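Hi U.,

Before I forget, here's the chain from the pilot set. I'm dumping it here mostly so it's searchable later in email.
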Amino acid sequence: MSQFDSDRDLSRLIALPFQRDEVESPASEGALVLGGPGSLTLPDEIGRSSTTVVQGFRPAFNAWVSRNFTTIPEISRLDKEDRFGIVIVCLSRHRRWNEIMLADAAKRCAEGGVVIAAGSKSDGAGAIRKMLSEMLESELSSLPKHHGMVMWFRVDEQARVALKAMGERPPTRASEKFVTAPGGFSANRIDDGSLLLVEHLPLDLSGSLADFCAGWGYLAVEAAKRCEGLSSLDLFEADWSSLEAARSNLRSADRPAEFHWLDLANERVEGRFDVIVMNPPFHIGRAAEPAIGATLIERASSALKPSGQLFLVANRQLPYETVLDRFFARNSILAETKSYKVFQASAQASAHRR
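Structure:
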């Protein structure tokens, strides 16, 4: 195998320090796992009953819960005094999110406990190791293997202080007006596809609006600003941190807003809406998965009122026309650029009415 297989290779990397007797079982203090994918296999030395998982991505959160692990969506849900003998950080592609997780790991690790961080070389694990080696006075051990790298260090006051400073940098923003979520979609700027969709939303939209895959709330904010007839907003998002950013961005909204942490592909949407806006994802990690968008279009068709309308932006190469034809009686292209298409669809096809 020539590439990093995220869940399998990550599990093998995390096990290496235990297999080499470099790290012992956390005993009574238990373990904390930050950012672990739902199918991650933990080393035998880490017991389920004494392990807490922090996972803000709803599908992975649900997977951990189904395996009977204590699972929370954000680290602030822990008691203030909770400390763990081992903290495992599953590194992501996003450096800022990795920095925040490492700062949280040092804070929540017991004195003399161990932080283990692992991830793919192609996602920057080597750069994280270099950064830690420059920041820490305590010994940093590491092993490159399985197309990735695992590193570990014992936590003392110097490590805690150094990593705390790194974690307290200002929040990420897409502009002066919008707070975003580190590691989330379009964290540093407003997405071009979303800009195009907003530009072509009819100003006379009215009734209830749902934003599917809402991210940090840009589409909902702009729709509310432009369309005076909208009476309520419902935002659906799988990433907890992004949804919390959306709450912040919609604090000044002049109409009711509800926020739903939901895996739209696998969990039921309650309620029916007059309008749904959507800029759906089409990747899992680095791999393109257009089927995600197709599933979300189907979900949108069943979440609309009979007279409801869907407004969707997608990369122009994605074959969503056939999916729209299957689930809607009418659809058309409102705008098209070299990169994106904006679709309008209405009137659910009769075979799919709910």
